[in-house]
Amino acid sequence: MSEQDAAKGLVTPVMRGMRLLRYIAEGGNTGNLSEVGRLIDVNRVTVMRLLATLEHEGLIERLPQGGHRVGMAFLTLAASALGSVDLLGEGRLMVERLSRELGVSAYLVVLEGYHVVYVHREMPEGGLVSHIRVGSRVPAFLTAPGRAMLAQLDDGEVKRLWSAWRDGESDKQSAARMDAVQFAKQLEEDGSKGHAWSFSGYEAGINACAAAVKAGGGRPVAALSVVAPQPLFDADSSLRERMQQGVVQAARDLSRVAGG
């Protein structure tokens, strides 16, 4: 701890814990404790103790394949913060309205490290058209709502998340099939349009359109996504345009609630 930090009354263990938690939330791998320590500027033993403490408090949890991800206590805390501006409540209403008016499935999605987490879903009377459920966690690079949010981040942050994804044990096969340069061009296009489309991108025969929900400063805090099977598009030539307009407008409305 520097003399300047000491003079400010800063608590070193808390600072170290926050650096580690931020590293994990951004998709960092905790498999190599020495490497983690180097990246957050603490020794290996301290990393071990910090991991044990954060896990005990439910802020992180172990992954079956090794490493950690943020835990339910962290997500609950984040949800409470979002709820303070009624983002989650308004988001549920937006999702329900989109599904009702368009006759398709709709989702509210948040970004967690290099994953997206689906936090609310509304389905049309026809029932399920997608295997994605509430609580599903999918690499952001593979989905329309993930791309919609990534397109609002700066290039450096996207590259860090891309590297973390490419290094993730469970996602290596999907990551290996994607080209970083082509994906960067796709994100640029998504950002300029203000929405992202996926045609059979994550699930065969399922198309999705998504738009980011932004807080102050343009930071993405969530995304709205509308999803429909290809036969619905074949039967209704206006569906694509209606889905796109609907989700973009809903995201703009929800961004106002979030201060964006």
Can you summarize this structure?
The protein has about 260 residues and is of the alpha+beta class. It is built from twelve helices and eight strands.
Give the key terms.
260 residues; alpha+beta; six-stranded antiparallel β-sheet; two-stranded antiparallel ribbon; 12 helices; 8 strands; 18% strand
Describe this structure in words.
It is built from twelve helices and eight strands. It has 260 residues and is of the alpha+beta class. The chain is elongated, with a radius of gyration of 20 Å. The two termini are 36 Å apart. The model has no long low-confidence stretch (mean pLDDT 85).
What's the topology here?
Elements: H1 3-7, H2 12-25, H3 33-40, H4 44-56, E1 60-62, E2 68-70, H5 72-83, H6 87-102, E3 105-112, E4 115-122, E5 137-139, H7 144-150, H8 155-167, H9 172-176, H10 180-193, E6 196-199, E7 206-214, E8 220-229, H11 230-235, H12 239-258
Antiparallel strand pairs: 1-2, 3-4, 3-8, 4-5, 6-7, 7-8
Helix pairs in contact: 2-4, 3-4, 6-12
Main beta sheet: 6 strands, antiparallel
List SSEs in N-to-C order: HHHHEEHHEEEHHHHEEEHH
Number of helices: 12
Unreliable spans are: none
Strand order of the largest sheet: 5-4-3-8-7-6
Residue-averaged pLDDT, rounded? 85
Per the principal axes of the C-alpha atoms, what is the gross shape? elongated
Q: What is Rg?
A: 20 Å
How far do the termini sit from each other?
36 Å
As a percent range, the share of helical residues equals 40-55%
Strand proportion, as a percent range, falls in 15-25%
The protein's oligomeric status is single chain
Class based on secondary structure composition and strand pairing? alpha+beta
Number of strands: 8
